[in-house]
Amino acid sequence: MHRRKIVVAYSGGLDTSVMVKWLSENYDADIITVTGVLGPTAELDGIEEKALKTGAKTVHIVDLQEKFVSNFAFKTLKASALYEGVYPMATAIGRPLLVKLLIDIALAEGADTIAHGCTGKGNDQVRFEVGIQTLAPQLNILAPLRFWEFKSREEEIDYAMKHNIHVKVTRKSPYSIDENLWGTAVECGILEDPTNCPPEDAYQITVNPRTAPLEPEIVTILFDKGIPVKLNGYNYTAAEIVKELNLLGGKHGIGRIDLIENRVVGIKSREIYEAPAAVILHKAHYELEKLVLDKETFRFKQNVSNQIANLIYDGLWYSPLFDALMTFVDRTQDTVSGEIFIELYKGNINVLSRISPYSLYDKELATYAAGDTFDHKAAEGFLKLYGLPFKTLNIVRNSIYKEVKE
Length: 406
Ligand code: ARG
Known about the structure:
Order of helices and strands: EHEHEHHEHEHEEEEEHEEHHHEEHHH
CATH topology of the largest domain: Rossmann fold
Structural class: alpha/beta
Number of helices: 13
Oligomer: single chain
CATH class of the largest domain: Alpha Beta
Bound molecules: arginine
Shape: elongated
CATH superfamily of the largest domain: HUPs
Number of strands: 14
Strand content: 15-25%
Distance between the termini: 94 Å
């Protein structure tokens, strides 16, 4: 008889480290840890030894950075998808990619169960479990954090210390941090009280705009069909562009977001995000769309963006509606090519210039100076008809009100 195998989504953070130990003590199974690398994080240091020391039989560490940015982050960028208008969804878009990796390894290793370290009140359990059910319904799902004996992060920290598991969090600074190339999410501790202003130590990758350099920094971003391909005139890979903009933006205090958000499970929570590259790229991409998309497509896409953001946040990346809406988005990106010049300065992104071969801006139509080709006289007839429904309405209502009054 083969021993049962459990694949564990392992980040090396507090929850999943404690979980590997706990699973090895409570289940008669081989523990296989799977770590998808979505960005450089401190938790990756020595992660293989740590997993083995904690009780893992087999360790998989897979670098997914380029795939993550190209197939997940840049998709949301094209879609202009920002949850509740501001959150670029770094965590939310990482989950579907990790789901795919976990399933691939579970099937290759002959495991029958995937375990994750999400709590019972977060969004990530939804993203993991809906994803797994959609792509591999034959696999079992195990979520120990929903039923194990630890009642708080403090108790987990105590258990970790007792078992010599090294974790970055301390009882004094108990932040829960999730980070990847598209952004950082920080919650817990003092942040749980929304009346508290975030202390400086809550921020991991950005400086306070007040202490940012006095000199602005100019950056140019070239897009090809909605995808950033060049930075300051140089070709970079997708992940390189994001890494570079995180550094530049972080240095200028860009991308800090303090959000009270509506979770899938019905509660409101408070999270601090830092996403310099995502915020810069969204701003530049939006600027380009304003130049090249026709009015109706531009307006319609705003609704689609919102719907896509909700689907991603709610864990429905692998769904027919998401696919269909992304097909619409891709079609809109055919002409989203051009270059945006911006300036980074003390937490602000100022657009300096925009240029595109597909620009729909016609200076001769827009100008108020000599050379204006706009037909001003045509406006008279246009307004007679455009205002006609309201004129009619007003006449009808006035006569009704008069009758009522008399
Ligand atoms: N609230 C964010 C989301 O649902 C991030 C969740 C993870 N946050 C964290 N600090 N571990 O996408």
